[in-house]
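2 proteins. here.
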Amino acid sequence: MTTVVSLGGSIVAPDTADVVFLKDFTRLIKELLDADQERRFIFVVGGGGPARIWQQAYREAREALGAAVADGDADWIGIMATRLNAQLVKAVMGDYCKDNVVINPGVPVVFTGRVLLAAGWKPGFSSDYDATLLAEQFKADSLINLSNIAQVYTDDPKKNLNATPIDRISWKDFRAMVGEEWVPGKNVPFDPVASRHANAINLKVICASGKDLPNLKKLLTGKAFVGTEISG
């Protein structure tokens, strides 16, 4: 069984690399791999704090020069941050991850180890879309999207105290919430381009907290968990 996970950069490197998370997360994954020799994981890592900080530096410098800000350039900066984060997770996983970090999920991918790491591919979408393509390629019936939120909400709970968590939502309703266009650095539970493709291939996406490792273990072992299922 191959489990595909979009691993949010916000939990790997919220500002800088989170060593405590990396240690505890790796221990959990190794525990699950040792318990089931047929199991494999694909982790597609986002840019997190490094992407956000470097993209903002780019925008501020261009504006100070009176020059236009190009979304493509901002996207490439974010992509490079995803690759740095993915290389870090690969190195921490050690011998479980034998293959190079995948940077093009649009071609057949070689997966010889127990863990495979992937990162951003090209401008126009986030690493969520890369994870969706890998889920399609490896015929996964679902994709787990881990971020710094426990569930999808009806609105931003930081701005709207009346926002409520959602246990299940259709792709139609979810896509109405996140829109159709991708903007580099856009903060949504699952990016619009990835959502459109996941909807088209009938892929179920489960959004959950990456930091809550006891809950994540429940999710990965088929027990009741806290999260949001997007499907249908």
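next one coming up
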Amino acid sequence: MLTEIGQKQTTALARFLSNYPIDQIVSSSYTRARQSIEPFATNVGLPVHLDRRLTERTLAGSPIDNWREVVRDSFEDLELRAPGGESAREVLARGWAAITELLNGGHRFPIAVTHGNLLSLVLNSLDPNFGYAGWESLANPDVFALKEAGDGRWAFERVWSEFKKDWNA
């Protein structure tokens, strides 16, 4: 369930996204992702299609003290896996499968709604300079656009970031 601040952020996100001709929405099945995009979807009359491949990375099977270290190191070692967790390579495989299907789905302007670790691993796969520092720089919500860069490659651009320290003002 989104907090009051989270709900204000989704309203700002919906306003921003209304400037684009979005014609398909696919979201992680996690409640917070779905709730983040629902105000926009309702405003434009689009359904939100859920895709479990866009869910956040399972970092470990149970809470671990060194979780930040695991996140940091997994940008360099895609096979790194905490006990009971997913490797970065596994997360990338399912994330890219969902994104590729969305991009090849015949839509003019589709969007995918996902979570920080999955998103940062995808962006890092496009630009290795993104990495852990890029993950740390993510805001909630944050919007990146994928663009064809030629030769079958993709590039990305941060097009909007809504991070304010005082949403109550």
